[in-house]
Amino acid sequence: MHTRQELAGERAAKQGRLLARPLTDKENLIEAPKGLLKLGLGQRRDAHLYVPTSYHPDHAMPFVLTLHGAGGNAKHGTNLLRDMAEKHGLILLAPDSRGRTWDMILGAYGPD
């Protein structure tokens, strides 16, 4: 049996939307590492997360997902916006496609 929230999440996913809610329990907030982090998703292809030095868990920050072009990589996405992220307080996530380009470019959904 699914909860109402789980069903809403499934409907949103089918429509290509992501749902997220901010954490409201301030006692359980944790300090995140700042700077450029590799997420360890794979040996050859990974993802980079950039957290600006101004980050503090008490304050929400805009989140930016960057997707590289064909033949590119995650580093391109974070390098392009890193100065802007510091200046404006943006958290960046830049994943690598699992292969040479994104699945949909090749005509189907896959591991991306």
Task: From the structure above, extract its key features.
15% strand, alpha+beta, 4 strands, 23% helix, 112 residues, single chain, flat, 4-stranded mixed β-sheet
Give structural notes:
With 112 residues, the protein is α+β, with helices and mostly antiparallel strands. Helix content is 23%, strand content 15%. It contains two helices and four strands; from the N terminus they run H-E-E-E-H-E. The protein has helices spanning 4-14, 74-88, and strands at residues 35-38, 47-51, 63-65, 91-95. The chain has a four-stranded mixed beta sheet, covered by helices on one side. Strand 3 (63-65), helix 2 (74-88) and strand 4 (91-95) form a beta-alpha-beta unit. It is flat, with a radius of gyration of 16 Å. The mean pLDDT is 81.
Question: Could you provide a short overview of the structure?
Answer:
This protein has 2 helices and 4 strands. With 112 residues, it is an alpha+beta fold.
Instruction: Assign the structural class, choosing from mainly alpha, mainly beta, alpha/beta, alpha+beta, or little secondary structure.
Output: alpha+beta
Strand coverage percent: 15-25%
Order of neighbouring strands in the sheet with most strands:
1-2-4-3
Main beta sheet:
4 strands, mixed
Report the strand count. 4
Helix content: 10-25%
Radius of gyration: 16 Å
Q: What do the pLDDT scores average to?
A: 81
Query: What's the total helix number?
Result: 2
- Extract low-pLDDT stretches: none
